[in-house]
Write a structure and sequence with these properties.
The complex is a heterodimer of chains A (462) and B (426).
Chain A: H1 3-32, H2 42-78, H3 89-103, H4 114-152, H5 159-199, H6 202-207, E1 211-212, E2 227-228, H7 231-262, H8 265-280, H9 283-304, H10 314-339, H11 342-350, H12 355-384, H13 387-392, H14 410-418, H15 427-461
Antiparallel strand pairs in A: 1-2
Helix pairs in contact in A: 1-2, 1-4, 2-4, 2-5, 3-4, 5-15, 7-10, 7-12, 8-10, 9-10, 10-12, 11-12, 12-15, 14-15
Chain B: H1 2-51, E1 56-65, H2 68-71, H3 79-84, H4 88-98, H5 105-112, H6 119-129, E2 137-143, H7 146-156, H8 167-178, E3 182-186, H9 189-192, H10 205-236, H11 241-255, H12 258-270, H13 280-304, H14 308-316, H15 321-350, H16 353-357, H17 378-387, H18 392-422
Antiparallel strand pairs in B: 1-2, 1-3
Helix pairs in contact in B: 1-18, 4-6, 10-13, 10-15, 10-17, 11-13, 12-13, 13-15, 14-15, 15-18, 17-18
Amino acid sequence: MQATNIFLLLIGIGLFGFYLVRGRSLAIANPLGGIRQLHSLPSYYGMHAALWCALPPLLILGFWLMFDEPVINSIVMNSLPSDLAPTNTSSYNLLLNRVANIANGILPREGQTIGLINAADNMAALKVTSRWSMTLLLLTVAMAGLTWSWYRVSADFRARPAVEKVMQNLLLACACLAIFTTIGIVFSVLFESVQFFRSVPIYDFVFGLEWSPQTAIREDQVGSSGSFGAIPLFVGTLLVSAVAMFIAVPIGLMSAIYLAEYASNGVRTYAKPALEVLAGIPTVVYGFFAALTVAPFLRDLGASFGLSISSESALAAGGVMGIMIIPFISSLADDVITAVPQSMRDGSLAMGATQSETIRKVVIPAALPGIVGGIMLAISRAIGETMIVVMAAGLAANLTANPLDSVTTVTVQIVTLLTGDQEFDSPKTLAAFALGLMLFTVTLLLNIFALHIVKKYREQYE
Amino acid sequence: MNNRTDTLSKIQHSLTRRNRAEARFRWYGRCAIFIGLLAVAVLFFDIISKGHGAFRATYINLDIHYDPELIGINNLADNEQLSAGNWQALSKTALRNKFPDVSGRQDKRRLNKLLSNGAGFDLKDHLLANPQLLGKKESVWVLADDDIDTYFKSWLDGDAYDARMTDKQVQWIAQLYQEDLITLKFNSNLFSRGDSREPEQAGIRGAVMGSFLTLIMTLMLSFPIGVSAAIYLEEFAPKNRWTDFIEVNINNLAAVPSIIFGLLGLAIFINFFHVPRSVPIVGGLVLTLMTLPTIIITSRAAIKSVPPSIREAALGMGASKYQMVLHHVLPLSLPGMLTGAIIGMAQALGETAPLLMIGMVAFIVDIPSGFSDPATVLPVQIFLWADSPERAFIEKTSAAIMVLLSFLIIMNTSAVWLRKRLERRW
C-alpha cells in the first residue's frame, strides 16, 4: 500500500474512533442521568480515542519511512556475492542504483549478471514485505489504541486533561521546530565543512588570496589542485554590500525622517506603501533589472565618459541591491524615530531650535541605537542576498576594491558550486558548505547583535 | 545700545542661515522619497515596456493541404504512423507554394526558418482534433519563428531589429505583410505550454503549476505549525530560559539568508532523507522552514491583540485554558493570522535562491500534475529564461515577471483588504 493511502486510512480510523468512543461515552452517561454525570464532555472522550488511534501509528509510519530504504539497501548490498561486492562509496552507489533500476524494471533483466538479478529480486521482495509488515503493524497499533481508549471510558475518567496534555505537547513540538531548524542548519553546514577542511586546511581557506575551485577528474590532470582561498569572495561581498549601503542608508534614512517628521497625512498614506512596494518585489526581478537594464546603462554611461565599466560591475549589482534595501531601512528607522518621545522634541523646539536642528541634534541621537541596529540587519541582508548578485555580478574572483570592476560574492559561489550534477563528496561541492558556514556565522552574529541593540533601545523608551 | 543691535543683527544673520539649512534638510527628505518612488516607477516601466510584446505572437497565414501522401500516413488512428509522419512537410510545402520562385538550398532553408520548428506538430494536433480535414485544404495561421517574431514586432514599432535576418527574409516578410498574411495574435502558448528551448514555443504553464503545488505544500505545513507555535508561545509557555531560547531562535531564523535554507534542504532532506530532487514536496518543505518565522511572528501579534478581558471572561465562565484558546482567542485572531499567512506565502512565491539548491532549476518541459512530479517554479523559470542567450527570451522573461508580480500584487492587496475588512478594534 502507498504511504499516502496508509496516512489517509489512519486519519479515517481516527475519525471512526472519535465517533465510536463518543457514542460509548453517551451510552454510559444516559443511565447515570445525562452527560453532566461525566467528568468531561463526550467529544473529549472521542478526541482521546482519536489521538490514541492515529498518533502512535503516525509516528511509527514516519520513522518506518525514514529508515526502511537504508535498511533494505544495506541488506541487499551485503547479500551480494563477493565478486560483485563494491570497493568504495561511488561504486557502491552506482551498483545500488543499478540494482534498484533492475528491480523497478527501468533496466532490462536480460544481459545482467545473475548476482545482480538475484539482488534485484531480493530488493523487490524486501520492499513488498516491508510495506505489508508496516501496514499490519500500524493497523495493530491503531486497533490497540482504539481498544485501550474504549475501555478507559467511564464516568470519572478525566478525558479532557488527558487530551489537553497531549495537545500541549503537540504545540510545544511545533514551537521547538524553530530550534530544530537552527540545529539542522548548524549541523548540515558544519558537518560538510569539517569534511572540506580535512582536504583543504582551514587557514588556506580563510586567508587564501586565490579562489579557483577546479578539481581534477583525473589525478594527473594539469592544474588539478584547485585553490580555495576565500579572501577574494569576502572582499567582493563586502564591496557589493558597501555599494548597496552607500545608496540605501542615506535614502532610506532621509525618507524615514521626512515621512515621520515632515510629511502630511496625505503624503504619508500614499508614499509609505508605495515605497514598501520595493520590499515586496522578488529578488529575481531585481536581478533581471540589474543585469539587463542597469548594467548596460552604466557601461554605456561609463563609455561616454571614457571610463571602462565592466558589464558585471559591482556598481550595478550593489546599486540595485541598495534600491531593494531602501524600504527595509526606512521602515525600521521609521519605527525607532516615531518611538522617540514627543516631549524630547517639544523641549528642543521650545528652546528655539528649528525642526531640522531638533531632528539632527535630539531625535537622531536618541534613536541612534535603533537606527544602527536596523542598519546592521540591512547589512546582514545585503551579505546574504543571492539572486541579484547571481544574475548581475561576475563569476571571476578578482581581488579588487574598484566598484567598476567585476567581482564575485560568497552567495554567487555557493550557487555556482551547487547547481548542476556533482559528486557530493568532492572538495568543490563541500567548499559551498564551508562558504555557507561562513555566511551563516557572520549573519548570525550581526543579527543577534542588532536584535539585541534594537530590543534594548525599545525597552529604554517603553 | 550698540551692543544690542549687534546681537540682534547676529541673530538675524544666523536665522536666515538656519532657515536655509532647514529648507535644505526638507529638500533632502523630498529627494530621498522621490528617488525611492522613481525607482519603483522605472522598474515597473522597464519591465512592462520590455514584456508587453510577449502577450502577442507572430503568425503567418498559409494554405495547408493535408495531403496523406505528403505526410506519409493513411490512418489517423494508427499511433505508429502518426509519430513517423513527416509533419514538417505540411508547412514547408505550403510555404514553398507561397513563394514558388525561391530556389537554392540555402534560400529554401532560410524560407523554412520563417516558421517555428514546432509548426508541424501544431498542424498535427489540429488535424487530430479535426480528422475530416485529411486530404483537404485549409488556410491556417501558423506560428512564426522567434527571430521573425522579434523582427516583425520591432518593424511594426518602426525600429526594425534585423541583426538575425537575411535580406531575402526581410523581403518575404514585407510581401506577406502587404498581402495581410502575417499578423500578431494573442499568444496563448505563453499560458498553455511548459518550458521549451525555442522561445516562441515556451510557456509558463509548467512553472505556474509548479509554484502552485509548492505553495499548497508550504501552506499546508507552515500554517498549522506556525499557528500552533504562536499559540504555545503566547498562551501556554512558561517564562523561562527555554522559552527565551525558542524566541531568540525564531527571531534569528527570520533574518537568516534564504540560501542557507537551501543548503539545509540539500544536506538534510535530499542527502539524508533521500527525498527526490526537483519535486514540489522538497520545495515545500524548505519554504515551510523559511516562512515559519514570519507566520509565527504575525500570528503572535494577532493573538496579542485579543484583549485579556475576553480570556478572563471565558475562564470566569469555567472554561479550561484550551477551551478559552480554541473557542475564543483563536477565532478572534484568525483574520490577523490569515493576513500573516498570505504575506508569508507571497514571500515564498517570490523566493528563488533556496530552490536552486534543491534542484528545482532543471529544464522541465512537462507540466507537473502532482507533488512528486519534477517541477520548477515561476521565479526560477524567470532566472532560467534571463540566462538564455536568445533575444526573444528577454520579452518572455519580462512577461513572466509581469505574471509573477500580478500574483504578488493580488496576494498583498487581498491581505490588506482582509485586514481592513475583518480587523476588530477593541
